[in-house]
Amino acid sequence: MKRIGILKEEGQQKIAVLLPENIKQLKEITDVSVVVENGLGDAIGISDSEYKSAGAIIALNSKELIQVTDIILSFSRVCDSEHFSEHKTFIGFFDVLNDFSSVLPLKKKNTDMYSLGLLPRTTMAQSMDVLSSIASLVGYKAVLLASSLSSSTVPMISGAGGTLRPAKVIILGAGVAGLQAIATAKRLGAIVKAFDVRHASKSDVTSLGAEFIEVEGAIDSASAGGYAVEQSKDYLNEVNKVLDAEMRTADIIITTAKIPGKRAPLLIQEETILNMKSGSIIVDLASETGGNSALTEKGITITTKNGVRIVGTTDLLADTAKSASFVIGNNFTSFLKHYLKNHVNEEDEILRSTKVLTNGIVTSERLVEEIENY
Ligand code: NAD
Q1: How far is 238 from 186, CA to CA, in rounded Å?
Q2: Which residues are catalytic?
Q3: 150-316 fold
Q4: Is the distance from CB of 75 to CB of 15 less than 8 angstroms?
């Protein structure tokens, strides 16, 4: 029987990586015991006794939990413990392409490690796709945050004092986060325009009732698993010109453009920002990887001298922790079920793609070079 341990997140991170209902589902289909760290669900109002009723055992702390379990789950808590060994497997959601800090302690302890941040974008892996779950919630929350920071209303409002025109909202990057941002801004009654280098996203944008900003000449890579690739200088200059004109009249801009493993593309130049309207808001969801705007500062909100507020927060997920725990719990449960059934099959695509370490040795093709040279 496998023993699965669920670590409590640390600091501001309020997510519980499995909910009591996920534990029930796991126990129904397979012979596992589940140990959860004391206080796992505190931040989202779920008590230890609810976990106990679902069949979990409560561990006093992470040390005890790691000692008595075989498979340890964490959302983003980097963990080092003398009790990690070659017989343990650590499963988390880490941006291992940009940050090795989660990998190094486990590498030294000869542990196996998987990161759901490396999942392939395939139909089989869809139910495990933590990245999409997060992007969707954060895209939604970014629009609400921008609307509440703006001193103007978003929908058209007609009343005794006249008519307030609807806000102009621009979304840069029309992937999962961008599409949710478009849908949310449309529901609020904004006029929405969006841009993406992947021309395939045009139909998604227009089907949500937004206008697609056209710029010809992008490199569209079919081999990048649905992701964008880096673009030529000439093309990016053309993008700048077209977007500059649009952004000067925007009330809200939400940026979501990312390229896996690379710095986020710079889509809002300083000159554009300094020509935007006072009171307009930019929420930069790419701030973690360098930002899409030239003046974004990771983790904080700044106001430019011409009155544009630029939000570089990386905390939006924590603001939806209850909803996030629900969807992420389902993603991890789906991955665990797959792992328990297939972990002996070395050819399994999902497990091969997500495996970072085998007995402490880096086996992820995407990481091998970078980490071994670290
Ligand atoms: P992402 O978070 O890596 O990037 C966000 C968006 O930024 C992408 O749409 C990307 O094209 C765009 N972008 C990159 N560089 C840009 C630039 N210079 N200018 C403007 N936009 C730029 O991507 P994502 O949201 O996770 O998803 C990317 C694609 O993968 C989408 O087509 C999505 O539908 C697809 N997807 C498939 C699955 C699946 O099949 N299981 C799951 C999730 C996402």
Answers
A1: 27
A2: 121, 126, 129, 132, 227
A3: Rossmann fold (3.40.50)
A4: yes
Q: Which residue has the tokens 């705007």?
A: 293
Q: CA–CA separation, 118 vs 116, rounded Å?
A: 5
Each residue's pLDDT tens digit, 288-340 = 999 999 999 999 999 999 999 999 998 899 999 999 999 999 999 999 999 99
* CATH 3.40.50.720 residue window(s) in the chain: 2-128+324-372, 150-316
Instruction: Report the residue among 258, 267, 289, 354 best suited for mutation to probe ligand 1: largest number of ligand atoms under 8 A from its CB.
Output: 258
Which residues, 6+ apart, have CB-to-CB distance to 148 below 8 Å?
none
Q: What is the DSSP letter of 34?
A: E
Q: What is the mean pLDDT of the chain?
A: 92
CATH number for the region 2-128+324-372 comes to 3.40.50.720
> What is the tens place of the pLDDT at every residue in 73-106?
999 998 877 878 888 999 999 988 878 888 888 8
284 Cα to the center of ligand 1, angstroms? 15
